[in-house]
Amino acid sequence: MNLKAIGATALLLASGAALAADGAVADQFKWLTFAVFGAIIGLTMYITWWAAKRVHSTSEFYAAGRSVSGVQNGWAIAGDYLSAASFLGIAGLISLYGYDGFMYSVGFLVAYITVLLVIAEPCRNIGKYTLGDILAFRNDPKKVKTIAALSTITVSTFYLTAQMVGGGVLVKTLIGIDYEVSVIGVGVLMLAYVVFGGMVATTWVQIVKAVLLVTASLLLVMFTWAPYGFSLPAFLQGVVGDAKVQAQVAKLLGDAAANMSAEELGQRLLEPGLFLKNPIDQISLGMALVFGTAGLPHILMRFFTVPSAQEARKSVIWAMAIIGGFYVLTLFLGLGAAIHVGPASIAGLDKGGNMAAPLLAQYLGGGADSVLGNLFLAFVAAVAFATIVAVVAGLVLASASAMAHDIYVGVIRGDRATPEEQVKAARISSVIVGVVAIFIGIAAKGQNVAHLVGLAFAVAASSNLPAVFLTLYWKRCNTQGIVWGMLVGAASAIALVMISPNMTYPQAVTRDARKVLEGEPAAPAKAAVPAVPGDGLLCELFALRDCQKAEPAKPAAPAREAKPGAPEKLARLRDTLPTLTDAVERDKANQEIAKLEKDIAKAREDLAKVAGQTTSMVGLEQPFFLLKNPGIISIPLGFLMVILVSLLTRDRRSEAMWDELYVRQNTGIHAEGATAH
Amino acid sequence: MTKSEMNWAAIDADPRFQALHRKKTAFLWGLMIFSVAFYFLLPIGAAYYQDLFRVRVWGPMNVGILFALSQFIVAWGIAWIYARRANREFDAMAAEIIRDAHNIR
Questions:
Q1: Does residue A71 or residue A170 have the better pLDDT?
Q2: Mean of the per-residue pLDDT values of chain A
Q3: Which residue ranges make up each domain of chain B?
């Protein structure tokens, strides 16, 4: 039966391949892409088939029998963490914005220090399969398991939606498979891993994928860096002197670039401030990253797969080495793509820059017209696809364990389910979560989901981390504190995002679309404006009346001529097209026409979407909360609620169990052991 | 080994466990506070000390790039320091408590 299902998945993907339309790969090289995709998918299917034979008990399904070694788990954690968003997204941000993109890499690595120092070993020592198990140790099991399951499913759903949509768009852009088909493909593949192979298959798929990803990146970096004799200053000098990079910086800076030399423009890419404009938002995001990783359910779950706390420690060390090493490579991938492919071409294919790494691969292999170039591209694309499938599998497993183990077995059946019933519940929950994920993925088509990853981290940091941290380390912490802290932490993070600039504000959308269609009027020269100091932190966070937000100094700007709207430009270009005789100029004009047509269609679509609306989903004309990331408020609030409510209430079980919890989390006495194979 | 045999309160009060607890707490808090403080210097510096981050040190390499790279070295350094101390000291202390746990009353 397993083999049949696997065969059906392969068929489905093959039929999806036949629907391919357009993308970064030319038609005559599509077979190459499908061959590489097929090989990698086949490999993961073989792993699933192999794993399916060894998954019988609950411990095997949720925790791979606790027999994964520290090194293996380290690779699997790296696999879980190096999602498409971080691999493609950060390389893209670096290629477009330089230094600011690299700052993201740092936050993702530093996050693991929290995991290593305060979370991994204690959780391994007292936990069983889920976040709920850790919290239920000394608190009322039914109450905290319910709330932990809710939080796990919320965080996983945010993360999962972003991955599904990102994956669908990625595959469509690269090889032209329809969005819906690729979402269903991701969903069905992932379900095959989880349902048949449980944690064993999910872990090994992650390991294989992480090895492939690191190998691919190392190869790309070798080819990029070798011409500079593996010298970092020489490579950066090459970046600074590159005309495409200089043009990108000039475009980003606008008027401010008027008096800068070419060398200064290039150097500016290596300085902060091209992408991240709001320092407090930046710190807020940093807080969500550094404290959120330790609260991500699919990462927490990984520590139950190793046999002991020592192996859990070893796995985090390995994960930090792999993840850190990988993020150093992103500097070369991003900047390499900037000098070889050029920021303009990268942004042309995908505005967020997600195509930087695949395009670099294509260039290094010999370009868009070469077999080797397309083979490289296909390899990187297939690895990115495998990444999405594997990360989604981890998330579905985390959600399914919350549903089946915490809610069904723990709360509904009062821990009296037979082992067979538990495994069955786990498989059924996986299918339910997986099918829901596919529907969400399709429903969210075309939505802006980039902020959902940030929101997942923010909820994990504001809800899960305070609860886990305080129950492990603070004697007075109790059930009521956990329940209220998790509710308020999660709710405040979500509520703040609902009133933040992440949402769609129809008036702003209309304004931007009109600018494209109708052009901009001429503007007189502006004198330099000195910096304005703000009225305090509150004014930086909320759009309050009579409250001055700090504004940076602005340099003088020369007068600007009126800009025509896109339709006007298009008409003019079409008029001049027949008069062009030079083939190169014709090509350029045609490209520009295609871009203008795309812009106009997009602007019209935007206008139609917000027609008749004046306020956002929650009834705001403009954002009330001024930051994109809520962490700076919701994380302290989550901690504060756990502490306050714990101090105000009493819970005999929480007090009575403290000694046992504290001794066990520090020594590992009675920790769940490995099952023998 | 059944759970009822354990006197958790007595183990908690045992001087060897108290010594482990004291050493671990001080060490972990110290590392944690240092690493968080060091990390937040990056976004704060990038936002408020841009002139410093711009200073060129080695060819096009500026203070900002070197500082960002130093974050990787420091993170790996903290992991190494923690692992060394835990492997050499904490594990041995915990092992002794585990060996003796049944006799602590």
A1: A71
A2: 85
A3: 15-103
